[in-house]
Specification:
heterodimer; A: seven-stranded mixed β-sheet; four-stranded antiparallel β-sheet; 50% strand; globular; B: 113 residues; six-stranded mixed β-sheet; 0% helix
Chain lengths: 114, 113
């Protein structure tokens, strides 16, 4: 089954404690991206990756890091989380090189930073 | 820059009512346009799309037409069901590479029996 898998689905942490949200896709997609969803703001892009070792900032990259060492994985790293990073996070993937293809989303990771 | 403006919600309708959710966009050139749906506790999934002007996307009774002259992509359904209750997002993909998606704020729809 084609899917994007995120872990953990739910996480409560404290300010400053580094955490990583993993994302893996089994569709051999070149393009992967991370979004955060906040009430009244919709989805905002954090980072995206066109392929292995190629990443770029989206609209709200501050406080986040990513890496793309393998095609299937695209982890999101919060080096020193703060309460304003409390949000619902989605990973997504698609075929690269065209603006007509759909994004495939994971089920989301709800993060609370105390 | 590119952006999507979507009708504010929440929207509450009775079963079998007609649905319209307005969406307008700002973009350079000719983006691809999408409607995504998010059911409670789930990720977003594609509902329909249109990739060029005057294209009509359709799926599960929902339709939307890519109107370049009005920069709009309104979502419609003639007769909603309780199972259509969800949050709907309008989105665009930039013209050249599709590297960036821009989403509207989402419209929550509740259909009551």
């Amino acid at each position: 089954e084609a899917q994007v898998t995120q872990n953990p689905r739910y996480l409560i942490t404290v300010t400053g404690k580094k955490l990583t949200v993993t994302c893996s896709q089994n569709m051999n997609h070149e393009y992967m991206s991370w979004y955060r969803q906040d009430p009244g703001l919709g989805l905002r892009q954090i980072y995206y990756s066109m392929n292995v070792e190629v990443t770029d900032k989206g609209d709200v990259p501050e406080g986040y890091k990513v890496s793309r060492k393998e095609k299937r994985n695209f982890p999101l790293i919060l080096e020193s989380p703060s309460p304003n990073q409390t949000s619902l996070y989605f990973c997504a993937s698609r075929v690269a090189g065209s603006n007509t293809g759909e994004l495939f989303f994971g089920e989301g990771s709800r993060l609370t930073v105390l | 820059g590119d952006s999507v403006t979507q009708m504010e919600g929440p929207v509450t309708l009775s079963e079998e009512a007609f649905l319209t959710i307005n969406c307008t966009y700002t973009a350079t050139g000719y983006p691809s346009l999408f409607w995504y749906v998010q059911y409670p506790g789930e990720g977003l999934q594609l509902l329909l799309k249109a990739t060029k002007a005057d294209d009509k996307g359709s799926n599960k009774g929902f339709e939307a037409t890519y109107r370049k002259e009005t920069t709009s992509f309104h979502l419609e359904k003639g007769s909603v069901q309780v199972s259509d209750s969800a949050v709907y997002f309008c989105a665009l993909s930039d013209r050249y590479t599709g590297n960036q998606f821009y989403f509207g704020t989402g419209t929550s729809l509740t259909v009551i029996p």
